[in-house]
């Protein structure tokens, strides 16, 4: 059961502007669309994508770290890792299973000839967009288990984009489509309360001691 009294107590340590900003951002947050990265070995790309998730209102991100387990580059993420929930997996199968069990369709971002152009795609159900490594693309496992394939049409001589650029383009497009549709994309009331508490805790110095004093009373 959610502890409303604890949230009220801790929010007393925040300014009204801070609390208002949390509510403003949470009103635009969604889990309806999420992103999954498969072994993206350049750390700054992972960091840039988590920043894009924050900017475009995606609350969750899924990272497969089978071969290239690295931390986020905080200089690029610029604090976004505090506001976006990052779920980590040891292999792609584990990530795919978790997403499907949570009700997501898997859409693989790939220039494959059978893929759907971005402008023609709308997420009619909860959607996880999978991105692969910069050199090798997505694994055969992800491509085989994907419910659909998606591409960014390219009109020049270049045949590919940096993975973080591709993610930003696709996430911005899908987020905009959701917000101008009648899809039920926002967070639930309970999810908003949980994130208010999480973000409040992350905003208070020595919060563990403060919570300990609260519980002692």
Short description:
This protein is α/β, with parallel strands linked by helices and 217 residues long. The protein is 43% helix and 15% strand. Helix 1 (4-11) packs across helix 8 (189-202) and helix 2 (16-26) packs across helix 8 (189-202).
What are its keywords?
single chain; about 220 residues; alpha/beta; Alpha/beta knot; seven-stranded parallel sheet; 9 helices; 7 strands
Question: What do you see in this structure?
Answer:
The chain has about 220 residues and is α/β, with parallel strands linked by helices. Helices cover about 45% and strands about 15% of the residues. The chain is built from 9 helices and 7 strands, in the order H-H-E-H-E-H-E-H-E-E-E-H-E-H-H-H. It has helices spanning about 5-10, 15-25, 45-55, 75, 90-100, 140-145, 165-180, 190-200, 205-215, and strands spanning about 35-40, 60-65, 85-90, 105-110, 115, 125-130, 150. A 7-stranded parallel beta sheet has the order 3-2-1-6-4-7-5, sandwiched between helices. Helix 4 links the parallel strand 2 and strand 3. It starts with a helix and ends with a helix. The model has no long low-confidence stretch (mean pLDDT about 90).
């Amino acid at each position: 059961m959610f502890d409303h009294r604890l949230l009220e107590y801790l929010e007393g340590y925040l300014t009204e502007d801070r609390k208002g900003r949390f509510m403003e951002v949470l009103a635009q947050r969604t889990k309806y669309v999420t992103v999954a990265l498969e072994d993206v070995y350049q750390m700054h790309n992972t960091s840039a994508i988590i920043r894009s998730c924050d900017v475009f209102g995606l609350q969750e991100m899924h990272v497969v770290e089978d071969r290239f387990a690295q931390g986020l580059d905080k200089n690029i993420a610029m604090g976004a890792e505090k506001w976006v929930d990052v779920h980590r997996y040891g292999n792609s199968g584990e990530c795919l299973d978790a997403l499907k069990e949570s009700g997501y369709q898997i859409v693989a971002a790939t220039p494959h000839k059978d893929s759907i152009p971005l402008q023609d795609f709308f997420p009619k159900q909860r959607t996880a967009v999978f991105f692969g490594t910069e050199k090798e693309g997505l694994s055969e496992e992800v491509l085989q288990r994907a419910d659909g394939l998606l591409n960014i049409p390219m009109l020049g001589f270049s045949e590919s984009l940096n993975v973080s650029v591709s993610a930003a383009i696709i996430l911005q497009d899908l987020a905009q489509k959701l917000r101008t549709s009648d899809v039920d994309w926002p967070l639930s009331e309970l999810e908003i309360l949980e994130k208010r508490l999480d973000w409040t805790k992350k905003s208070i110095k020595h919060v563990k001691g403060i919570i300990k004093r609260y519980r002692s009373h």
